[in-house]
Give the backbone structure.
Amino acid sequence: MATVWMGVLALEPVAGALPQRHLLTRATAEGLMAAMGAQLARFLPPEHDYGFVWSAALYDPAQLLRPGFPVHQELGNLFLAGQRAGVAAGHSLTLCERDGRMPTALLEPDVAIGGGTLFTIPVAITGSEDAIAAATERLEIDLYGQGLADAAIVYELARDLGLSFEHVRLMSLLDLSAMMAAQLEHIGFGFAWQLIEERLYGNPPQCLEVSTALGQSLKLDDGAVWLSFLPYSLYARQNAGLGDQRLNEYVAQLHEFRQLQGLLAAHGMIVRVRLPQADTGHACSRQNDDFVIDSLSPNAPVRACLHEAAGLGAIALTLVDAAGAAVEHRYPLSAAAIGRFRDEARAQQWPIERLGRVVLSTDGEDLAAPSEGVRH
């Protein structure tokens, strides 16, 4: 593993502007190498030798803030490989696309987690342990107040990407972490950052449990984050209230649950699901292939009903027997689970009825099939 200082060039486009691509052209990358290296060199102690390596692509910050910091470690490792091939220790190395692909899989931008307003270009400084310690001390202090990118860098990025920027600045990965913490706190997800931060920087990470704004439990344990999941029937037993109001509250909780799944996965966290009061060492006994399954009857199902909520999509699938009674409710834990269920239903010859709403039983205590007594 390489010894590196880890930083980024953070790009904030003007409001509403998004890049049409995430890979810089080779010509732009080669032109930026000298300018970026020269700006960073102004902050480096002159008594040490340093190398500079960067990836000419745009990444969502979450991809860089993953356990082990795999993108930056890949930069350092590729620089070391370059040294073995003749790249001098004090030289710069630009890693850019060829035929639309980055040099290694780890350097491919994960565009599936995009949607934010901040993009990052990872940069790394290489050197001996003493050199990196000295550089870190300087860079962590100086870049905070003097990290705005030189005009030549901003111009080349704007020209290549066809974007205007509010800010382009160099910062350390620690400063990027602080920025992400502030953003998550602002939208009410500061509790999630506590777990992410512990997983990133804990040495070793400690067991940590937090609660969401809606009272859901998250626990970091043994390298994974465990999320509690409630089927509607259990939620209804634990929460008094009218059916419609309680259902709306459940949908809000499920929305929060899915937001957490996406956020934690974007940061490379292992996410597992458990029922409340279940030991974290054991997965939910009724979790199967990305579903939480609430079994009601041993009867054979002959069809399925898809419960949906506006703005959230699929809530659950209810399997129904020949008499019209519910056999089980399956709560999908991923979009892929829906696709797998469609394959299963096709193989079993189960028709799937899209209800376009959530159907509750007459007492409002559980989901139901339309043929049963319902109240919603």
